[in-house]
Structure formats: structure tokens, C-alpha cells
Amino acid sequence: MKLNVNALGTFYEMAREGAGLAATRLNSMSEFESRVKVTRLHFTHRSEIRNELDDGSEKVGIRVSMDGELSGTSLLLFDHESALSVAGALVDDVDDEPTNELATSAIVELCHIMNSGFVDGWADVLQAEIDVDAPEYVIGDTAGAFIDEDEFGNMHEELALVFQSQIETTGTEFGFEHYLIPEHESIARLFETQTDDEGIEYEKLAGFDQMAQHGATRVAENLSRMTGIEMDVDIRRINFISLDAIPETVPNEPLVSVAFSFSGTLGGYLLFLFDPESANELVAATVGDSPGGGLGAFEQDAIKELSNVMTSGLLDGWANMLDATIDHSTPAYSHDMGAAVVDPLIVGLSEVQEFAFVFDTRIHAVDREFDVDIYAIPDETDLEAALDRLDARRIDESLSHDVEETEFEAREFDADLVEEIAAGTFEEVEEL
Amino acid sequence: MKTFDFGTDEEEATREERLVGVSGYHVTSEGETLIAYGLGACVAIALWDTDSKVGALAHTLLPRQESGLGASSGKYVDAAIQTMLREMVEEGAGYSSIEARLVGGADIFELKALGKGVGKKNASVAREELARLDVPIVAESTGGEHGRTVEFDTATGRLEVTTAHSDDVEVL
């Protein structure tokens, strides 16, 4: 199956509009003033979906099975508190658990109305018949409460496609997620009808992601070695998203960020985002506590150098797999609102594309509050061409020989380099 | 069970605050507060009719419609200004009493691949387009290296600019 960017764009817009319709219906039925926060079309390992639903927090909502030209599962889930609030807005007597018959009926009816709008939108755009089963009330804090093993089995193991929308309300803490998880065979048929010969081969994207996963794991291991903090890869997924929507995926709070551009066979941008506490902790672990407790010039250079090492590791791994050369710029530092650090990169890409594949990785400390988000946003045309060159055998060879590890270790973090950078005497690469 | 009037699907709930996301714009005569978060190189264009209190805010990404892909009017500085002016007049604004304020257009990162002065270019095209259409700019907070957030109260015309680097609120 080939993923054509135009077809993906159509599906993405459809999901975004469907979520908007769901939010409007929620507004009509309750006192909540809600809007779609973000819609994602993402490709992820099915175990990630399981982990996300299995996060220990109780969720309440409906599950709907779809059949026909689009088959799969649609889940509309409120978190526990939001479910109580919604049920309270719809019916008069709601106790602490959203389990009494009235509350349950209210939640099912609301979710069903929201979901119908979503599915109708899909059917209209696809000009297809989609049969929808009666909604089933679901409640629980484990993945099994929402998706059964057969449904997991129908997803692509390496790179399941998920449409996910978050709805937020003005002035109220509100948790609502909508997942549309198509069966792989079903979505493959749809892409065949929407796509001509051009596009990204699904299996190659899956292979590339497998390699990127390996690279992310290596970065986490090396970060552990450099800092002494045990790190692990928390999230790995490929988002297909409108460039306009990327700022909404970033926390709206001050973040320490380091950006790189990369070019060669594959061009684009790489962005590292740390919350200020994590940035301080990273500096303290590598070059010691800063005298002022903040991020002065020396500490900023340390963050830049650490990010530089991580960038080399990631991009060397990609270059090895693609049998290509990928150069990257010197690091650019900013400490600013999340959306503000993303928008220059979006401006840079917007002249040539509307959508982007965003390789989204979160590396977190195993036993403390420390994490780093890494966004890689390749140029869309380059990505298509690069994956076209990708040889599946090379992925296997790369994975079995750990080609990128040698390259990575050659760029171990060196505190002396930070001193040199701070003194303005270090020049590693010409800026692109 | 309570009963509800669903209205039309397109019907939006009235709200006091409205977020204007990247490439979005909104025109209102309802006195809403329009908010654009985290402007980096993007430029927010606020238009307000001092008489009718019709207001508008765009969160623009690129300078001119010919410079990018996609048909969203709010994405481009020139198209957003033209579209908002037209819709404001349709909402009852008097063209001659509309004034403009500009926020954003910073250079957050020094990356050569981004080109120099991307944010400045957005702000400069906004000035050119507003001058061409005879809309006066009464205030602006543009340039620099910091992101900005705009809150524009269209009931009073008060526009607040905040940054991550200071607790001070700049009022334009």
C-alpha cells in the first residue's frame, strides 16, 4: 500500500472536521464551551496504543464497531472527572460514580451523537457506506476494557494508523479523547482507491520507523551514559499533521529548546524541547550545578552541546540506513513559549508543503521527573524520495550490525567542548 | 433525561474567549476576547472599529498568498487583512474608523536555513498592505527575539501582549 500525501491530507482534514463537529455537538448538549485542541493522524506501534489506554487512569465512554468500506473501532472516552461533569450537565442526579443508569444513558447518548457526526463525515468524503453497530458503554483503566485482542490483531503490528482528537473546554479541566482505529486491511483498500502510483510505501515507512526506534533507544542509552540518569524511550510515533496544528501539540509554557536544520539526501528540522527543570537537571548531571541556579551562557552551551551529540546520533543512524549523507547545522538555542519556538520552523516549511510527517520521540528518566521531547520534521518531498531508496535488507543489516552506534560513540559528550564553545573557539561544522 | 435543542451542526456556541490558532482568523461583533498564543515569526494582525466595536484578529504565517500552499485566508498576511476588512464591514464596521495593531514577527532562532528576517518580512508586508488599504497602524510590538501572546478584548479595544521573559504586560 502506498501513502499518498494528498490522500493522507484528505483523511486528516476529515478527522479534524469530524472532531470539530463532535465538539459543536458537545457544546449544544451541555454548558461546556469546547473546541478541538488537536487532531492527529499518527502511525504507531500497537503496543503504544495499548500503553496509552492502559495508563491506569479510569476512562468512561463508548466503543463503536464499524464495518463496510471503513471497518475498525471508534472510541470516545472521557476521563473519570469529565464524565461526571458531563453526566451532571445532562441529568439531574449524578453521584460520585458515572455508573447509575441515567448517567450511563446520558454519556452513551452524548458520545453516540458526537460519534455519528464523525462517522457521517467519513462516509460523505469517501462516498462510502459505513455500517455502525450500536454503541457499547465502556469503563475501565486498562486497554482490555476498550479494545479486545481480536481488534488489536487487526491492526498493523509495527505501524498501526490511529486518528486521535483531543477536545478541551474553556476554563475547565477537561479530558476527552476520540480514537478511530481502522483495521489495517480496510485502510489499505481505502488508500488504494484514493492513491495513484506516487506515494510512500507503507512497509518502507514501517521499516524506517523501526530504525528510528532503534536510534531513539541508542540516544536514550547514550544520554544515560553522559548524565548518569537512567533514561528510556517513552513515546515513539510518526504524526502526519497539518503544519498549522503543530504548535498546538507543544506545551503552552516556557521551554528550553535547541533547533537544528539538516540537509542532504534528507532535509528538514530537528527540535529538542526540555522543560526548564529538566534542562537544569541535565546541566547539573553533566557539568555540575550552575552557580546562579539558572541557565546562563555556559549552561546554555552545555544544553546545545548535549543536543548536538543527540542530533549526530539520530541523523547518523538515519543516514546509515538510507545509505546517504545528512549534514546538520550548528545548534540554535531559545528559551521561550513552546508554540513560539515551533513556529519559525513551520514558517520555513510552509512555503513548500501544507502537511508534515513529524517523528515524535519522548525520552524520559526512569525514576525522576526529567524528560526531553524530540521532534524531527523532514521535508516531505525529501522523505518520499529517501524512503523510495530504502532497501528493506539494509534495515535488517543496520539493525543487526548496529551501524550507527560507532558513529554515535565518536560524538560522546565532552565537557571540554562546552568550554570551547563558550569561549567561542570551537567550530565543528559550517552552518548550513 | 433533560432535552436539548441541537441547532445546526455549523452553529458555534457563543463564548467570551476564542483562541485564534496558526493560520486562523476571527471577526466578531460580540465583544469576545481573541487570543493568539506563542507568536514567534508569525504576526498577529488586530483590527478594531472604534465606533461599532467590531474587531478581528488573524494569526498569520506567511507574507503573501502567492508564497505558500493552501487556501486558508488566515495563513497569509495580505489575504488575512483583506478578508478581515471585508467581513468587518459586513458585520457593520465603518471602514474609515478601523485601526490596526501588529504583534509578533520575531526571529527566535538563528538558523540560516530559515532565512534571515522571516518574522520581519511578515511584519513589513503587514505594514505595506495596511498602508495600501488606508488602514492606520496605531501601535505595534514586533521584531526582537522573543515569542509573544496576544489577548485582544474586542469589547474595549484593549490589546495585551505578554512574553515568557517578563511578568510585565504591554498594553497596545
Automatic annotation (TrEMBL), chain A:
Q: Organism source for this protein? A: Haloferax marinisediminis
Q: What is this protein called?
A: Chemotaxis protein CheC
Keywords from UniProt, A to Z, are:
Chemotaxis, Hydrolase
Pfam families from the UniProt entry: CheC (PF04509)
**Which GO terms are recorded in the biological process aspect for this UniProt protein?**
chemotaxis
GO molecular-function terms, A-Z: hydrolase activity
CheC-like protein domain span: 298-332
InterPro entries assigned to the protein according to its UniProt record, in alphabetical order = CheC (IPR007597), CheC-like_sf (IPR028976), CheZ_family_phosphatases (IPR050992)
Return the SUPFAM superfamilies for the record. Answer: CheC-like
Automatic annotation (TrEMBL), chain B:
Q: Which domain of life is it from?
A: Archaea
Any one Gene Ontology MF annotation carried by this entry is: protein-glutamine glutaminase activity
**What class does this enzyme belong to in the EC scheme?**
hydrolase
Gene Ontology biological process:
chemotaxis
Q: Which UniProt keywords apply?
A: Chemotaxis, Hydrolase
Name the reaction it catalyses: L-glutaminyl-[protein] + H2O = L-glutamyl-[protein] + NH4(+)
Which N-terminal stretch is annotated as signal sequence? Answer: none
Asked if the Swiss-Prot or TrEMBL record annotates the protein with the keyword Hydrolase, the reply is yes
So what EC number does this one have? 3.5.1.44
Pfam families according to UniProt: CheD (PF03975)
Record's HAMAP family?
Answer: CheD
Q: Which family does it belong to?
A: Belongs to the CheD family.
Query: What job does the chain carry out?
Result: Probably deamidates glutamine residues to glutamate on methyl-accepting chemotaxis receptors (MCPs), playing an important role in chemotaxis.
Q: What is this protein called?
A: Probable chemoreceptor glutamine deamidase CheD
**Organism name:** Haloferax marinisediminis
